[in-house]
Amino acid sequence: MKLALTGANSSVGMNLLAQAEQHPELEFIAGVRSESALGLLPSSPQIEGRCISYQEPESLAQQLQGADCVVHLAGILIESKTTKYQQANVEATRVVVEAAKRLGVKHLVFISVVGARADSPNAYFRSKGEAEDIVAASGLSATIIRTPILLGPGTAGASALVAAAKNPKAKALGGGLYKMRPLDIDDLNAAIFNACARQQAGCARYELVGPEAIRYCDLITATAKMSDPASTLEVGSIPIGFTKLMAGITSTLRGGGFTPTVIDVITQDEVVAHNASAELGVSLTPLTRTLEKILEQ
């Protein structure tokens, strides 16, 4: 079976490709948007890097020719002057779905986010919800997986967490009192592989989160303690209101970047009604083991 990945140079994409040898039955089309990104992809006879574009379905279908399943990873949290949520999260998904139809793929996997919904007042969550609805209405066999903060090699969440844990004067927005459900990126990889293998009929939406709810401030101190058992780190507070005010001014002047929308995403409690680990065939990695892996790296 051949899997086509969009956003193959993302942290999730790179981790999926790093596991190629563990799945000798699979081949991968690793879709990236530039020649320079091609050079960063893992080297393997199972992996074929291709430059792709999300401009229109026909050309994307040609660029992903040969794929049996499509795993749509591409998207943005932080807007820039030239790339906005509507373009990168909504319209790109629409093009991927139409290309998948033209290819006649057996299954489509879309990676979304906990909190996504089309009527959300938050522009990021709204864009991911709209993208989900496009996938759900496509008529394709599809799996939508909503994820929380991801921890693992190359993830932004892991880099920020380790940096904070090593800083004796660590601070977090609002003191880091918001609750998270950190998910080991290897567990997400397993869910994606399982979804592609099962190819159930219709479209199913799942929320997949880690096994433990924890405040971000406690996650930082736990990481610091694992790194140095003598650590007495206490996490200070960055005022959310003032930070949103400054972010609003700065992002307006720059046309993107760290915005109040992003701050709301970061500081929202990650709450799910049901963790679909069993449905997705995933044995969740204990949080302590995930932190060990990050620190070992």
Question: Explain this structure to me?
Answer:
The protein has 297 residues and is of the alpha/beta class. The protein contains eleven helices and 13 strands. It has helices at residues 11-18, 35-38, 57-63, 85-103, 123-136, 156-165, 185-198, 216-227, 240-254, 260-267, 287-296, and strands spanning 2-6, 27-32, 47-51, 69-72, 107-113, 142-147, 150-151, 171-173, 179-180, 183-184, 203-207, 214-215, 236-238. The protein has a seven-stranded parallel β-sheet, with helices on both faces. A two-stranded parallel ribbon has the order 7-10. Strand 4, helix 4 (85-103) and strand 5 (107-113) form a beta-alpha-beta unit. The longest helix has 19 residues, at 85-103. It is globular. The mean pLDDT is 96.
Count of helical regions: 11
Query: Roughly what fraction of the amino acids lie in strands?
Result: 15-25%
Report the average pLDDT across residues: 96
Radius of gyration: 19 Å
What class do helices, strands and sheet pairing give? alpha/beta
Distance linking N and C termini: 31 Å
Largest sheet: 7 strands, parallel
Shape: globular
Uncertain regions spanning at least 5 consecutive residues: none
In spatial order, strands of the major sheet run: 3-2-1-4-5-6-11
By DSSP, the count of extended strands is 13
Query: Would you list the SSEs in sequence order as H and E?
Result: EHEHEHEHEHEEHEEEHEEHEHHH
Helix content: 40-55%
